[in-house]
Design brief:
The chain has helices at residues 2-14, 20-47, 56-82, 90-120. The protein is an all-alpha fold.
């Protein structure tokens, strides 16, 4: 998925839809969301957290809230440091945020289903 998103982001930058600081912020957002998604799927193995665990649902909710909170901080940092001239820089960010959130939730649900089906066998 990330390769496709990178190609799409490159194409929009090449077409001139993303320029300057907006393009930089979109790439920074992509890097942040990718690293966050990788961490989301690595942390349960370190914590020995399985989808059958009673804390797995709590983990999913914390992950989604933390992504929202960290994303808001990223946007506020960008506004305070780069002083963008318009507000359109958030459009690519929110598109990427929505895409990665859907992907994360889908993957966590699939992980939960696989674990529940293997536990019932």
């Amino acid at each position: 998925m990330s390769v496709g998103v990178m190609l799409l982001l490159s194409a929009t930058e090449y077409a001139g839809w993303l320029q300057g600081a907006t393009a930089f912020f979109a790439w920074a957002a992509l890097l942040f969301l990718w690293l966050y998604s990788v961490a989301v799927f690595m942390i349960p193995s370190f914590l020995k957290l399985t989808p059958q665990s009673k804390y797995f649902t709590h983990y999913m909710l914390v992950v989604l809230f933390a992504k929202f909170f960290l994303s808001a901080i990223l946007i506020l940092l960008y506004i305070s440091l780069a002083h963008p001239t318009d507000k359109w820089f958030v459009v690519p960010f929110f598109l990427l945020y929505t895409l990665y959130t859907v992907f994360d939730v889908y993957q966590l649900i699939q992980l939960s289903r696989r674990a529940s089906s293997s536990a019932s066998v």
